[in-house]
Amino acid sequence: MTSIVVDVSAAVHHRAGLGRYAAELVKALIPLLPGRLAIFYHDAGRADVFPPLDALPARPYPLPAKPWRLQVMLAHLFRRPMDALIGPGRLFHATEHLLPPFRALPAVFTLHDLIFRLYPETHMPMNRWFLSLMMPRFLRRADAVIAVSECTRRDALRWYRVLEERIHVIYEGVDARFRPAQPEAIAALRARYALPDRFILYVGTIEPRKNLPTLFAAYRHLLGRWPDLGLVVAGKPGWLTRGTFRALRELGLEERVRFLGYVPDDELPALYSAASVFAFPSLYEGFGLPPLEAMACGTPVIVSDASSLPEVVGEAGLRVAPDRPGDWAAALAVALSDESLRAHLREAGLRRAAQFRWEVTAQQTVEVYERVLQCRGGPARAARPP
């Protein structure tokens, strides 16, 4: 019986969105693939393999991230298959934009986004170079490609001419723990982080494409009307953050904006629930999970009208052009002050978020696995040229 090996490197090394995807997908796959599921991860010495992933058979690999990437790149360029890394009788699911070259093993590749092509200035140069060189190879090698949104699917078709029958749109989900928090949980979280009574919340990595300067400018405008209004940013600094913090200083907001850094997953529902409004001004998202999590917690949401965000949020949130700080200020003002609108956004958001479940993501992913295995006629008979 074919085993399914899922790369959970992003999860065990706590890589924000990609890590959430890998962890939640595997959790939901466990009951669907009893006795057939295994995990792979690199940099084994530093991996935090948490439950329930730690109960699964594992194929750990010692190389840290950069040497591992280099090894995979060289294996592709010199046509050195890496089937032995995973073992026979298996299917490999690449979840973090890194697919080793296999001769006989079938492979599924999750494409989260093509930000490095669309907004190259928001990526580190080496990362941009690596993905520009390797992404075409990864997509060609994969037996099937999972796109996390229609937006990502369209980008893949446009930039890489992936055959339409090989690409499948499977949305991410919202874990059941994301729901309106109890008053005592909210009060405890407020005390732990010394949060203001009313605040705008952003959750995500701090990096250029997240477009936080637009949110800072809108917030600065609102302080004239609501001097006690807070802005809270939850998430670790990523890369190229100098421009973001320079904008903060130029607006004189260093002492006003609260940066919480990494917030544990079990505290996020109370944080979302405590916020007056959730704001997500990102220039581009392959999917955009934080707005859905906020809606699942009953918080009014405002997002950019760009990339996948309108597709994911639908009519359940307000949508604003990412390059219009004045429009962001106006949208935030009405979301903070109009109680009937707030009630509508809360109810619409709860209904919308309920449509996205990891159980559905996992079931649709299993269907892709089965289709690949059926088309390949079993991994042993489907050898590829080196």
What would you say this structure looks like, in words?
The chain is built from 16 helices and 13 strands. The chain has two domains: 195 residues, 3-Layer(aba) Sandwich (Rossmann fold), CATH 3.40.50.2000; 171 residues, Glycogen Phosphorylase B (Rossmann fold), CATH 3.40.50.2000. α9 crosses α14. The chain is 43% helix and 15% strand. About 2% of the residues have low confidence. The protein is an alpha/beta fold. It is globular, with a radius of gyration of 21 Å. The chain has a seven-stranded parallel β-sheet, sandwiched between helices.
Unreliable residue stretches = 378-383
Radius of gyration: 21 Å
Shape, per Cα inertia axes: globular
Number of strands: 13
Architecture (CATH level 2) name of the largest domain = 3-Layer(aba) Sandwich
